[in-house]
Design brief:
Blueprint lengths: L6 H11 L8 H15 L16 H10 L3 H14 L4 H13 L14 H10 L3 H15 L5 H19 L9 H10 L4 H21 L8 H19 L2
C-alpha cells in the first residue's frame, strides 16, 4: 500500500517550486493549477492572483496542492520538476521525491532514480557531448518514448565517450583493442578487461541490429540496456 505524501514534504516542494525569485510566478501558479483543476475535476482555493488570505505564493501553491490525492500530487510535482530541472534546488527535490516515494514512480521509470544512473551522470558530466546524449535517452524514457532513438542515444553517447577517452575517431565496434590497452594502462586485470570487452562486443552487435537499423526495440530490454551502458561508462571513466 502506498504511503501518502506527507505535509512536510508537500511544504518543502512548494517552497522550492514557488520560491520567491526562481520559482513559478503567481500567474504561472494560477494557470497551472487551474488546468489541473479541470483535468481532475477538483476545486482549488487559488486559481488567479492576487492570492488573498495567504501571506505569499508559496502558501497558495501548497494549499492548491493539498486538494489533490497523493498520486496526483506526485505527478504534479514531477511535472514541474522537469520544467525547472536546471535549478540545483529542484534537482535535489527530484532526488528526495524519488527516494522517499519510489512507489509512485511510473512502471519502467525506476531506473531514473537508481544509484547507477546518478553515479554515471556524475562521472560523465566532464564529457559534454556524451553527457547530453545520455540525458537525452533518459528524457525519452521519462516521457515514455520507447523507440530505437532512445537506444541509439545510448550507443552514440558511449561511442563519443570512448572516442574522447581513447583519442581516436573509431566507431564503437572498432574500439575493443583500444579499450583493452586503455584498461591495461589503468592497472585493470586481464580477466576483468576480457570480461568488459566481451560484453562491449555483444553490446555493439545488439546496437547494430536494433539502434542503427529500423527494427522494433523490445520495451522490456530498455532498462537492461540503460543499466549496461551506465556500467560501461562508470567503469571506464572512474579514476
Amino acid at each position: 500500500m502506498k504511503k501518502p505524501i506527507n505535509n512536510v514534504f508537500l511544504t518543502y516542494a512548494s517552497d522550492i517550486l514557488a520560491e520567491t525569485n526562481s520559482g513559478l510566478t503567481s500567474t504561472e501558479i494560477g494557470k497551472y493549477f487551474s488546468a489541473k483543476s479541470l483535468d481532475y475535476n477538483i476545486d482549488i482555493p487559488f486559481h488567479k492572483p492576487p492570492f488573498l488570505d495567504v501571506p505569499n505564493k508559496r502558501t497558495a501553491f501548497l494549499e492548491n496542492l493539498k486538494r489533490f490525492n497523493s498520486d496526483q500530487q506526485f505527478g504534479i510535482i514531477s511535472e514541474l520538476i522537469e520544467r525547472m530541472i536546471h535549478l540545483e534546488s529542484v534537482k535535489d527535490l527530484k532526488n528526495k521525491l524519488y527516494s522517499q516515494y519510489p512507489e509512485y514512480i511510473p512502471e519502467g521509470q525506476h531506473i531514473l532514480a537508481s544509484e547507477i544512473v546518478k553515479e554515471t551522470q556524475h562521472w560523465l558530466s566532464a564529457y559534454k557531448k556524451s553527457f547530453e546524449l545520455y540525458n537525452s535517452a533518459l528524457d525519452k524514457l521519462n516521457n515514455r518514448i520507447y523507440q530505437r532513438n532512445l537506444i541509439d542515444d545510448l550507443r552514440l553517447s558511449l561511442e563519443l565517450l570512448l572516442k574522447e577517452l581513447l583519442n581516436n575517431d573509431k566507431p564503437l565496434e572498432k574500439q575493443i583493442s583500444d579499450v583493452g590497452q586503455f584498461q591495461k594502462n589503468k592497472g585493470i586485470s586481464p580477466e576483468t578487461t576480457n570480461m568488459f570487452n566481451t560484453l562491449l562486443d555483444y553490446y555493439g552487435k545488439y546496437q547494430n541490429k536494433y539502434a542503427k537499423h529500423d527494427d522494433n526495440v523490445n520495451e522490456k530490454e530498455i532498462e537492461f540496456i540503460i543499466d549496461l551502458t551506465s556500467t560501461f561508462m562508470k567503469f571506464i571513466t572512474k579514476k
